[in-house]
Amino acid sequence: MSGYRLALTRAPSGVGFTLIELLVVIAIMAILAALLLPALSQAKLKARGVQCMDNHRQLCLAWRMYSDDNQDRLLYASEDPTNAASFSRAWITGTLDFNPAKPENWDPSLTIKRSPMWIYCGNSLGIWKCPGDTSFVQVYGQQKPRVRSMSMNLYLGGWGGNPYYTIGSMWHDYKMYLKQTELAVPGPSHIFVFLDMRQDSIDMGNFAVDMVGWPDRPAGYGFYDLPGSYHGRAGGFSFADGHAEIHPWRDDRTMPQLIPEGFVSDWLASPNNPDVAWLQEHATRPRQ
């Protein structure tokens, strides 16, 4: 009996881990996690990029369907505030900011659902935003996502079809496309329609590419608006032929530090910036 009782109380040999063994296992797990996290982050970025391109393609399709049903006419990139008749022909109206007293910032029924494109969007609000845009408006302690992150190339219709809205600018020197057929120069695959915009740059519905310096005077390059970079160092675009792409940025000046719940300058000099050259090449062409 004594031998039996002893067998019940004696701990089996070789069972369990020592403290050192546990620390080694934890260290190995930490190393494996450190190796896997970058790969997981890249996979997440890639998935977000795929979703963003799909949103761009669907939004661009809605834009094209409007033209098909309206004698080839293009929607305006923005309304002309001096011309009330232009509001019904703008792809989107209103100005985004972070003012909680402006429900247009966060209520799509006041903006997106009034767009001439809405009937072609399959009731999808998601296609008006890049999934990487997490900007919001603080309304009575509640974070309300802003309605969109995409803007339209200014040279597609301009401000209500008016190339002279900004007095003293260079707008009148460049094509303001008003019909699909006009995009034959330089070709619909070369002109972007929509792009992701930074949350501290987006306001009206348009994205204005500064054409100063095009094509061979890079010392004059600059930005009126800043593109988004929700995909690492890259931003989403859709083009007039319907294709979409994530375009990488090469210059750090294209991606200055974000101003949370604020706005960057309306004009930023950026001489010799290759990203400005790319935007110019895909925005418009000189008037003939």
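Second entry:
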Amino acid sequence: MLTETFSAYVVTKDEAGQVQGGVRSVSQADLPPGDVLIQVAYSSLNYKDALAARGNPGVVKKLPHVPGIDAVGTVIETTSNEFAVGEEVLVTSYELGAARWGGFAELVRVPADWVVRLPAGLSPREAMLLGTAGFTAAQSVDTLLSHGVRPEQGEIVVTGATGGVGSWAIALLRQLGFRVAAVSGKPDAEAYLRALGAQALLAREDVDDRGAQPLLKGRWAGAVDSVGGNILATILRGTMAGGCVTACGLTGGTNLPLTVFPFILRGVTLAGIDSAWTPHARRVQLWNQLAGPWKTDQFNRIQKATIGLSEVNRAVEEMLAGAHRGRTLIEIRPDRVSATR
């Protein structure tokens, strides 16, 4: 029989207006409506989760809130004919952990069309080491392939290389035979990036040209960019004719200082990657790719740590300080409920 309360990492605001997060006991009645109730085994820490943990209004619309844009676990109640009690399933993106309570909890309730069966070939742990980051990387790589980018055409540059998306993009591209140049602002990351498969390492300054030339020498056949801003503009100006650049992030800025010349003189494609609302059929297809022909042997290398809910605050601070590398797995094990319940 299900208990009426469960543990979750809850972000609240106190009477002084200070936002704080901690493990609390919450009621099932507080969960949003949905077709499928899932007992969560693992979640993972993403940059969006770190922002949500600090009550960022661009992510969180109201408090209290439970972050966690990723979750994997077992169906324990369902009103949908698509799923059965006892099935292992995963949920990534949509409004999970943003507009509605997310995976930093023992239970989540979601609409059935958000749910994907855990593919054969992926364990729950592996699914969450991938999570939204790995899924975004897979979308990016799939987009490059669909635009005709092939290993023999040249190097692929990956920005934000030590982050979740960047790490998985490097691993997937090398799995598919591409030569990869990794961009990172962390001088101590060389061994990690080379072990993932990067064959060239670039500093941020190498892809942050502030000159006035509308085009730069063509260096790359394509790119996976998770930074945005002038770095994305530099890469577009330096992409070879017919190349494709995918964009999925904005840590480097939201403006794109650029002319139309890369597009009309070189035929470069800029492809936006939106993981949140990817159609269900494509979502299932990509997860099956990640569990099958695209599956790499890099899970242990990309896993930075496994933590419990009570350790989320420390991991969030590290991520927001720019000191995070790879993926942090959150095991939803019984944590001591804080005294602030």
